[in-house]
Amino acid sequence: MDEKDPEIINKTVGCKTCKAVNRRDFLKATAAAGVAGLMLDGKEVFASGDKKSQSKSIKKIPEGFTSDPITEKLIDHAHKQNIDLVWDRKAHCEFSEEGNGGISGVCCFHCNMGPCTLGEATGYEYGACGATADTIVARGLVGRVTCGASAHVEHARATAKTLKGVATGKIKAYKIRDKAKLDVLYKGLGCKGKNKALAVAETCLSDLGKDEGEPAWLGYKANAERKATWKKLGILPTGAGAEISQACHRTHMGVDADMTHLATDALKLGLVDGYCGLHPATDMQDVLFGTPKLVSSLANLSVIKKDRINIIVHGHEPILSEKIVEAAEKYPSPPRSINVVGICCTGNEVLMRRGVPLAGSMVQQELAIVTGAVEAMVVDVQCIMPNVQRVAQHFHTKIITTNPQAKITGATHIEFEPEKADEVAQKIVKIAVDNYGLRKSNKVMIPDHPPAKIMAGFSVEQIIGALSKLNASDPLKPLIDNIVGNNIRGIVAIVGCVTPWDHYGYRHLALTKTLLAQNVLVVGTGCWAHVAGQRGLLEPNPDYPGVGDGLKAVLKAVAKANGVPALPACRHMGSCVDNSRIEDVLNAVAGYLKVKISDLPVAASAPEFITEKAVSIGTWAVNLGAMTHIGGQPYVSGSKNMVKLLTDGVEGLVGGKFYVETDPNKAAQTILAHVNAKRKKLGLAV
Ligand code: BF8
Ligand code: SF4
Prior knowledge:
alpha/beta; Rossmann fold; binds FE(4)-NI(1)-S(5) CLUSTER with Oxygen
């Protein structure tokens, strides 16, 4: 392509109007032609790679917010090389604006009489089949919750099958690392038989396969009050497979066309996520790989090292990545020492149990490759942007897909089987080591800012263990006393993804900091933990900057009792499946105070949610009774009835509700008001 040819720009503009623009070609062409940006119909379509014009399209940095220099420098570095990133590709359709089409959830593709778009965009009130906006929005929501739940169910299935293989001796590469946890699960699930690991694994697999009764993990983990409430509402699920299949059936063209009926299915699928996905995945991973304990490490992209062989593990299931870490440690006489670092929740998993540094969150995955110093990015499942392969083509980096369910065109696929875990891991590590020779030193750019220090590993067992140093016979008492005494105003779980549609991490940071200043105990998981870690909120800093006096005193007391100089301001509880750990904490507190979770001064928040998994986790949190804030449009605003149901009506059913607010400062005030209102209702000081 002749980049100087002005025709290219015209052609690309033509492309833009047909919504199929290739941004990279456009950037190259406009930069070569000296065009800084492009306006179409009075709107900036996008700016060229030229830095000056880029900054025009970036929103003004909010007051008091400093952007992350490592991320910023790598974004600039990518743009200089005409590499487009997730921040650049806003490929929304013309009907996607708020109150209109896509974002409001009123586009339907369920059959070939469509696609049907209702509302302002087209002026239609009904789809070709007569489906209303209520039906289309509800079907879309059920679909997203189902898909999110299925991701966690597949995670649990992979873990259960591995545990089963270990129990029967078929899989030799792993062993039971936490026998005590296995005993607790075996008892809690009411298992039978001598082979405890086999019984636990088969209980999970049975929960995934059955179509009657209720999931054993729900019976074990959910509290009695919740179970009774869900039963009354008729939303107790049977088995994951049956519920997922039925949800797909119900959303097929011409089946379920009643909004409330569909919405209750969404609630049910939220429970499938919690009890057939999150809980069993966490629990069995602890049995296999160990229950997390306090661990120190580092976070941000500068954990990638110039003088090391860098391997990134990325995705969600730690079954292979555990072995990659091991194979790297044991690799015979490496020419350069191997540095394994993690992205997304696989990163969180190997951080929590092995102290592996966190390289970055979901939106930073392309930037990791842009450092030019990554020999291999080994991916398993979920949140892996296909664009990593396009970015990798600019460098020597090998993208290695490993899961039979997930391939990326152009990537190297080395299929993982737990039966051959060591062999596969060793092969992958060797590929990375061999690939080091192809690294081009002039392409390496790791920003010269040290990664942040972090402390993680806050499993429930670790939290209780730390509290027991204050009160051995009644470890929860110090926590409860401090909640009652208002040193801890409440507990808020901040979880989920990082959005590219704002300054990197802004919503997470603004919300977290405001809550900490108001003595709210912040616990979290997922990509929140990457951002929190990168920006000092997981650093055990004895000064506790920005933390309210009450909370600071509690953290200091727990640190002192445990013989550590300090604890971090927030508790990193793990990956997204580890949200299950948060329920265990809430159940313990609610049980102690003899109230419902919905009576507690607690809330959940996913201020930058992206994925369908985030939607299903949020639905599960609402089921638990938590007010659940989400910082983005969940594609339901096209149905006023659905909005009312999710943000109001559902509270009367399950005690929790959704609250949508993109501005983290407003969200913080609403969450604080909610926490205070719950305190008042319990007769606690505000
Ligand atoms: O499961 S927070 S972007 S990495 S979905 Fe994905 Fe969202 Fe990150 Fe973990 Ni969770
Ligand atoms: Fe249109 Fe109905 Fe088909 Fe959806 S199911 S595409 S609303 S005709």
